[in-house]
Known about the structure:
Blueprint: E1 3-7, H1 12-24, E2 27-32, E3 38-39, H2 45-59, E4 65-68, H3 79-96, H4 98-102, E5 107-111, H5 125-131, H6 135-142, H7 147-171, E6 175-181, H8 187-193, H9 198-204, H10 215-225, E7 237-240, H11 244-248
Parallel strand pairs: 1-2, 1-4, 2-3, 4-5, 5-6, 6-7
Helix pairs in contact: 1-10, 2-3, 3-6, 3-7, 5-6, 5-7
Amino acid sequence: MGIAVISGSASGIGASTATRLAAQGHRIIGIDLNGADINADLSTPEGRQTAIDQAMEMSGGKIDRLVLAAGLGGHIDDGQLVAKVNYFGCVALLDGLKDALAAVDGRVVVISSNSAQMRTDPKTPFILAMLDGDEDKAMELIGDAHGALTYGTSKHAVARAVRRRAADWGQAGITLNAIAPGMTETPMFRGAADHPVIGKSVDMIPIPKTRVASPDEIAGVIEFMLSDAAEYMQGSIIYVDGGTDAQLRPDAF
């Protein structure tokens, strides 16, 4: 097959996606904080550049598939750290690897979240600062906010970043979409669900399917989104959340 670069490859959805793509015959280049082919801290500009440089070197400048799954959950106290990884780390890799994707008409899936539209004002100043690429201003506006605030908003910004790039990237031959999972049994979800305060909010989120997803279920949809069958999808945000978003926002889509 080809070369697949996956951030957040050491656990959760990223690890399950790596397993599926490896079974297809892809050579996997994993990126994570630890335990991956490329160990990099995506909360820092230096770490992001390290990940980009090493991915370009290891792939020979040609990347067939890119899955950006690295992220931090809303149970993390440091809201700035959550936004740095979830938005700025994601977008830096997305843009930094564009040329390698364009070289082979590559396909990309970015992990957003169904929380991206939960009580989120799209005009929130630090969301706009993220979308403007102004990390310093975004961090100043976030201040000492908890990750419970910046998790959903960072994932909202990620989805908009994908939509904003869809036209240009499509013309460059790159298929670019995002998936918005709901509650999935990953270390990130477990950290939120078991948190003494955040866990109460997690318990209040309805799931019409009455269960959380397995990482492999989400990876299966990602696998489809990267396949030939989904080649005409561009700029789509696909909700895979057991019906949560439909129940909470039945008249919005």
